[in-house]
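(Deposited chain)
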Amino acid sequence: MPYCHKCGKKNNENDSFCEHCGTKIKEFLEETEKETEKVVKKTSTGKFFFFIIILFIIGYIILDIWAMQQLTPVISLDSILTSASNFNGQIGITQTTASTTIKVENPTFVPILFTRISYDANYGDTKFAEGQTGFFAIGANSQQDVPVYLTINNLNAVKSALGGIWNTITGQTQKAYINIYADIGIIKLKIKTLE
């Protein structure tokens, strides 16, 4: 049973006017239904576009991570000279720090936005160096000089070097490897291991 929107009293289903105050209630109900349908359609369309935008963002993040895995350092005389000219280091008792640049190439069709690459160097189970690039963006199918920061733990580096010599003499093997991670804001994903 509909209620009158003006006086609030009950009326019969088929009444066009309120029995108590004479206000048109059937016309008001029809207009209210039409407005409700419009709001529902707008909300549905808005949710659909929001869903498409979220899918687009997730798809781009997946492509971005894939493209980061394809990044390669450019080894050329020019890139080596640039790296050497930008080298800056400090040697301490327990650790050595260095900063320079390396030229990287993005061979993919995906531009990489706002990312950082971090890495650690290990010999066996001993981590002797770790570092990271600065945040950078690189276009599709392009090259760019990227700042690199490195910290070497001198004691672990000596331990790894002595372990390598000992393993060579005794014929034992331990693996030397570098883990490479993609740093996207607060997310850190392992993208490769170089051995």
